[in-house]
Amino acid sequence: MEAVIPAGAKQWAAEPEGTWRFGIGARLVTAFVVIVGLAVGACLVGWLSYVRLAGELSQIAQAHMPQLAFATRLSKAGADINAVMASLAGAQTRGAYTEIRRSYSERLEALQMLLDGAGSNSVGNDLLLPLADAVHRNLEQIDLAAGKRFTLVEEMRSAVDELRWVQADLLEEADPLVEDVRFNMETEADQTGFNRGVLLEEQRKSEALLTVVSQANLATGLIGRLVNIGTLEDLQETNAFLGDSADDLAIRIRSLSDWPDSITVRQLAERVLKQSDVHTGIPNLKRSEMAEASRLETLAAENRRLVQDLGARIEAEVIATEARAAEASARAETAIATGRKLLVAIAILAVTLAIVIGYFYVHRNLLARIRLLANVAGNISAGRSGTAIPSGGRDELGDLARALNIFRQTRDELIQSAKLAALGQMAAGIGHELNQPLAAIRSHSHNGMLLIERGQEDQAFRNLDKIKSLATRMGEQISHLRRFARRPDSHLGPVELGAIVEDALSLLDHRFDEEGVELDLALPKESKLQVLAEPVRLEQVAVNLIANALDAVAGREVRRVSIRAWAEGTKGFLLVGDSGPGIAPGDLDSIFDPFFTTKSAGSGLGLGLSISYNIIKDFNGTISVKDTGPTGTRFLVSLDEAHR
Predict the structure, then answer these.
(1) What are the residues facing 533 on neighbouring strands?
(2) Which letter does DSSP use for residue 261 in this model?
(3) Any stretches that span the bilayer, and where are they (predicted)?
């Protein structure tokens, strides 16, 4: 019999292939591209932010940090110069000045080397260098002034030291003269009739000599005080006292000019007088030293001003460098903040998009439809043909739903075709079953007509009653065939297992007779065995198992089919066996697969056991090969017993 192809399947096969549409794959690819695009965007934003940050950090590291370090070293060099400058102008000795000057020069040289080595690192270097040069030039002038001052100081100290020796020599030379004058005066006074003029002359010499000594001592003291004077007023006052003392000393020296013994004293006193001269002596040196000190103070003030300007410029350079570094740091922070905000926004957008796609599309749409279609496919595989298949959707799941609908139609029609094929195989036997009653009806009707003509009405009524019985029997057989051929109901209920087996045998009785097959039947007699099933489909299972048993014993020497039905616990069992050659071990795992058959071509579709398996599974039962071998095979069906 030709297999029936459903109209839906033909329509499905006629749809053009390769037509592009925005299906699940395109949607998921689009979502993937969008999410990958967001990830690439996040990477790009991060890369740009890091590039900007790296540029700012590189600028800080290569420009601002060296400038800041340079400014810090400048600041330290300026502070060092300021610290030494305060003590440079106040040095009182050449050694102290030389030591301070050496330290000052070293620090100034360090500043100069720092500026010379700065190059382009400092934008204020063009202003710092002239200041540093001015400090150097000023320091040279300070060196000149300090040298002259210390030279004058040294000369004054040397002159004072020499003057002190002159003073000591003067005292030493004056003492004998004083003793001589005193002796002469005493000698003259002891003589009778002394010369008063001689006595007065000796007294004048003594007074003059003592005055020279005292004025020389006074001048020496004033000169010693003069050396340590620090103000011009003190200098002028001391010079006035020293001038008076020098004038008196000069008069006294001249008064001793006619005393030959006082020549040494006069020479020593003249040396004191010479050093007391305001224009040529130590006062002149002191005035020159104070002038140089004043000039040195002026140069030191200028140097302090230059150093302060240098410090101010250094401080300005430090502040400017810090400001540039702060600006670069602020730009880096801005770059980081902007990149962070963009990355957070992209992450939120990506997470939101992933949630929307994952929950609203994948979970609520795709997975829900897939689960529904999987449930439908399970129901179809279990033989529940009444399950509704969701329609709609211009995507792959919509195609799958339409394919499942077509598959269900094809499956149902193949099952129906299998049943019709079974009916076709039973057509000869059915015809035999109908022909015999028809022949009897013709015979009884002919005899009835003859009996009526002969007036034997009682006999004619008996023939009519026989005709009625035969017609009823034929109607029951035709009704049974029609019931077996119709589509089954999905509702399960109590079904008498023995009656189902007898109905199935009634469809296959002719094969037992024609093929000479022995039937070994054992059904419950005392009580009816009812199982939970649907009668039409359960009868189809029985027909399939009995028909397969008949096919298995065809051509065998021993042709026997055994059927057993019994109840055990809460289960009802049906056992169908044959005396065939058995099932090959390699085929045991495939006998319930659709379209698997070991029969010759044209002898079957290979759907009987597969359909029976799904029907029994739909009844919450089991069907299996109980045993098989060279002496035959037995199939065991287990069903739930219906509650009585």
Answers:
(1) 493
(2) G
(3) 28-50, 342-362
Phi, psi dihedral angles at 643 (to 5 degrees)? -70, 135
Cross-sheet strand order for the sheet of 632-640: 518-522, 560-568, 571-578, 632-640, 622-629
Please answer whether residues 115 and 125 qualify as being in contact, where contact means their C-beta atoms are separated by less than 8 angstroms: yes
Tell me if 409 sits within 8 A of 530, measured CB to CB: no
- Confidence (pLDDT) at 106: 77
573 touches 622 (CB < 8 A): no
Sign of the four-CA dihedral 199, 200, 203, 204? negative
Contacts 24+ apart (CB under 8 A), 564-570: 564/522, 565/497, 565/498, 565/501, 565/522, 565/523, 565/524, 565/529, 566/522, 566/524, 566/529, 567/524, 567/529, 567/641, 570/640, 570/641
Q: Any idea of the CA torsion for 172, 178, 180, 186, to the nearest 10 degrees? A: -150
User: Tokens in use for 339?
Assistant: 């990149």
> How far is 346 from 350, CA to CA, in rounded Å?
6
The pLDDT value given to residue 159: 83
Q: For residue 461, is pLDDT > 60?
A: yes
Report the distance separating Cα 416 and Cα 611, nearest Å: 11
Alpha helices for 385-487 (secondary structure H): 396-425, 427-453, 457-485
Could you say which DSSP state residue 529 is in?
-
pLDDT tens readout for residues 333-374: 887 888 788 888 888 888 888 888 877 777 777 777 777 777
Is the confidence at residue 20, as pLDDT, over 80?
no
What CATH number does domain 488-644 carry, 3.40.50.620, 1.10.3370.10, 1.10.600.10, 3.30.565.10? 3.30.565.10
pTM of the entire predicted model:
0.42
- Cα–Cα dist 419/415, whole Å: 6
**Four-residue CA torsion sign, 614, 619, 621, 624:** negative
Q: How far apart are the C-alpha atoms of 451 and 459, rounded to whole Å?
A: 7
Helix 535-553, helix 396-425: angle, nearest 10: 60
Tokens of 407: 């598959």
Q: Report the alpha-carbon angle 564-566-567, nearest 5.
A: 160
Q: What are the φ and ψ backbone dihedral angles of 568, each rounded to 5 degrees?
A: -150, 115
232's tokens:
């011009």
The first and second tokens of residue 511, run together, are 């094969």
Percent of the chain that is helix, strand, coil (3-state, to 5): 75, 5, 20
DSSP-assigned beta bridge partners for residue 493: 533
For the chain, what are the domain ranges?
A: 135-289, 434-486, 488-644
Q: What are the tokens at 238?
A: 């001391």
**Separation CA 452–CA 460 (nearest Å):** 6
Rounded CA-CA distance 391/372 in Å is 11
* Residue pLDDT, tens place only, 529-565: 999 998 888 888 998 899 899 989 988 899 999 999 9
With H, G, I as helix, E, B as strand and everything else as coil, classify residue 180: helix
Sign of CA dihedral 335, 341, 343, 346: negative
